[in-house]
Specification:
Helices cover about 25% and strands about 25% of the residues. The chain is an alpha+beta fold. An eight-stranded mixed β-sheet has the order 1-2-3-4-5-6-7-8. InterPro entries: DUF3298 (IPR021729), Esterase_Immunogenic_RsiV (IPR053421), PdaC/RsiV-like_sf (IPR037126).
Length: about 260
């Protein structure tokens, strides 16, 4: 998470500058807010109930709708927080840990003096992915996090988690690939070429973070999708990126 810490630090400096000038500077860079997706989890307009029992939704004080989507809303004079995620993801502890960390980090940043008078918001939406059978396949949950700490440049990050339904255990970047393999060496040219093709004219240099660049991913029957936060590989104006790598290109190293 080194890249994220650096970006949050820059955002905090921007927040301080805004507090001193009583207004946000005009940005020449594009910013990326969460976009709609046909597979994204959406919040139901139907009545919801308070979450109960051991669940991430209960831990976060959210409400579960009839579609099993948990929504969390917090609003103060200085900021708003909105979260939306499925209440039935198999690893509820991991969901609670990720969202609690993001919430607490955001609140600490936007309440640190001097506090910017500009609007501040954390908006976390989610998308689910599946591979294999419902009983023995995998479940992936990807959080897209739009963060505006009151500066000139809101950011979009990702947090992703994956779960092996048969083994009842999380899947990480390390366990996704065979022991002794070098997935970064395989992935770097594939992802770099994809970014250069889609971001023509933007600077796309060698991967600056190594394996950390690929820690947020989702699994489908046909591909491994890697989610890259804004400013992590290329310029922030390019926005957040997701790169789908066919399983056939990774067959030799997938565990």
């Amino acid at each position: 998470m080194a890249a994220r810490s650096l970006i949050v630090g820059v955002a905090a400096l921007l927040l301080t500058a805004c507090g001193d000038t009583n207004g946000a500077a005009e940005s020449s860079e594009a910013t990326t807010a969460p976009s709609a997706s046909s597979s994204a989890t959406t919040t139901s307009a139907a009545p919801s109930t308070a979450a109960s029992g051991p669940s991430a939704c209960a831990d976060l004080g959210g409400r579960v709708g009839p579609d099993k989507v948990c929504t969390v809303h917090t609003e103060t004079a200085g900021y708003t927080i909105d979260m939306s995620f499925p209440s039935d993801y198999p690893d509820q502890r991991a969901v609670a840990d990720v969202l609690t960390r993001q919430r607490d980090q955001f609140v600490a940043t936007v309440t640190e003096p001097p506090v910017s008078p500009m609007p501040k918001a954390l908006d976390i939406t989610s998308t689910t992915y599946r591979s294999g059978s419902p009983e023995s396949g995998t479940a992936s949950l990807v959080f897209q996090e739009y963060v505006n700490v009151g500066g000139a440049h809101p950011e979009t990050y990702y947090d992703a988690m994956n779960y092996d339904l048969a083994a009842k255990a999380p899947i990480t970047f390390d366990t996704l690939f065979k022991a002794g393999s070098d997935p970064v060496a395989v992935l770097d040219p594939i992802v770099e070429n994809d970014l250069k093709t889609r971001l023509e004219g933007a600077p796309v240099d060698a991967n600056p973070l190594g394996a950390k660049m690929y820690e947020n991913f989702a699994l489908t029957d046909d591909a491994v999708i890697f989610f890259i936060g804004q400013g992590m590989w290329t310029i922030e104006a390019a926005g957040a990126q997701d790169v789908s790598v066919p399983r056939s290109q990774l067959a030799a190293i997938l565990a």
